[in-house]
Amino acid sequence: MELKKRIKLAYNVLANKSVITKDDQIRSMLDFLGIDQAETKGAVSEATYYACMKVLSESVGKLPLHLQQYTEKGGVRKAREHPLYNVCNSRPNKYMNATNLWGSCEYNRNHYGDGYILIDGAGINTKLWLLPSKNVEVWYDDRKILGDIPDIYYLYSYGGGILKLGSEEVIHVKGFDSLDGITGMSVKERLKNTVNSGIKSQNLINRMYDSGFTAKAVLQYTGDLSDENARKFTKGIEDYATGKLKNDGIKNIIPIPIGATLQPLNIKLTDNQFVELRQYSALQIASAFGIKPYQIGDYTKSSYSSAEAQQLSFYVETLLYIIKQYEEELTYKLLSEKEVAEGYHFKFNISVILRADFATQVKTLSTAVNSFLLTPNEARSKLDLGSVEGGDRLLGNGASIPVGLTGIQYMQNKNPKKGELHNAKK
Questions:
Q1: CA 72 to each of CA 69, 85, 343, 372: distance values in angstroms, whole numbers, following the listed order
Q2: d(CA 57, CA 411)
Q3: Which phi-psi region, left, alpha or beta, contains residue 372 (left: φ > 0; alpha: ψ -120 to 50)?
Q4: Which of the listed residues 211, 246, 272 is the one where a domain comes to its end?
Q5: Residue 352: inside a domain, yes or no?
Q6: Which of 17, 83, 173, 336 could disulfide-pair with 124, CB 3.0 to 4.6 Å?
Q7: Is residue 304 part of a domain?
Q8: Backbone Cα Rg of the chain
């Protein structure tokens, strides 16, 4: 970067000419100092880290979010008439759909340790907006500097200034790694050395590709050359070796003058167990995210009996903690105390990731219908089929009888009187 541009960037940082984040300040100062930012550009360039972020973000984004209500008889129904149902399940704002919002929030939560969503409006006018986590600072105002009551405040920096938001105005989902329960810590901060090692290993491979997998070498020559001539001589040999003269039709031949010897310093990746160490680092990163090895393409130790078992393990061990936090935060922040008392609550539909093959689904639903668990229409809805007339009644196996009548079929009197039947029921 040119010195003039570096000075301009540093001046903008020091003069605070615009509202920028700490990350922007650090990057600008590194540019001014001429420091390579290959490792500071973000851990997302590391393949395993990116794969883990992708799996978690897509897993949360693909789950339908429903607003439900407990009924008086202990059942559950979807509250489709509630104005927040479509906001959270379909269109949180006019620029984003629900999949984008929840997936992006989960991405921010994993990458920065916290995810933030602004609650704009109330009732039918409610809109949900994603707040980039790098632009948000969390303050606990116990000295009443920002407000009249002690509260947690969120300071959101944007192009026009700073927006102060109260705790009830922001949906805040945290990373699991939190010491105070208020803010979380990202995996990349906790495993900074491991992630950086993955970035360095990828940079090593990239440099080897750039050099045509030509290793460093020792150039031996006889005679006396000045420092300037030695540099020119060495550079010429290096241009031949690294393929910089391929445009001239020279690719594989390195001319060596009489009295000179080129001795390569071969460093084999296998000798340094490069592949094994890189695979071990990848498993460490995936383990920190709660991602299973098969989800990052490692099938060497797969011990699951089926795809359903894999998904169930991922849901119980990784995803359950995450979506439970979303459900609790949304229920508290979006619903009134009266609505919560009436049984309203948010619930992710996890059946989309635990869905079996069609034959298994049909068999399971048939068993549920025959066991008085589901009505035919409820079973049909799970297969995205329309309801039919008479399908809202519970059906079952005709051989099933109440437990109080067990054995009545073996009584000698096949036509018991009313009093006898009453005694049998007892």
A1: 10, 20, 9, 19
A2: 63
A3: left
A4: 272
A5: no
A6: 83
A7: no
A8: 32
Q: How many CA atoms lie within 13 A of 113 on its CB side?
A: 20
Summarize pLDDT for 58-99 with one digit per residue, the tens.
Answer: 999 999 999 999 888 777 888 999 999 999 999 999 999 999
Torsion-angle region of residue 398: left (phi > 0), alpha (psi -120 to 50) or beta?
alpha
Phi-psi region of 223 (alpha: psi -120 to 50; beta: other; left: phi over 0): left
**Cβ-contact 200, 39 below 8 angstroms:** yes
Lowest mean pLDDT, pick from 127-141, 167-181, 301-315, 396-410: 396-410
Residues 87 and 123 sit within 8 Å (Cβ to Cβ): no
d(CA 371, CA 348): 26
pLDDT the model gives residue 31: 54
Determine the 3-state secondary structure of 75 from DSSP: coil
181, HSE (Cβ side, Cα atoms, 13 Å): 0
User: Strand (E) positions, 230-365?
Assistant: 260-264, 344-348
Single residue among 272, 292, 310 that ends a domain in this structure: 272
**262 domain residue, yes or no:** yes
Residue 418 DSSP SS3 = helix
Our count of domains for the chain comes to: 2
Angle at 206 between CA 205 and CA 211, to 5 degrees: 100
pTM of the model: 0.66
Pairing state between β 260-264 and 217-221: antiparallel
What number of other Cβ atoms are within 10 A of residue 306's Cβ?
11
Domain that holds residue 256: 192-272
Query: Is the residue at 247 inside a domain?
Result: yes
DSSP state of 66: E
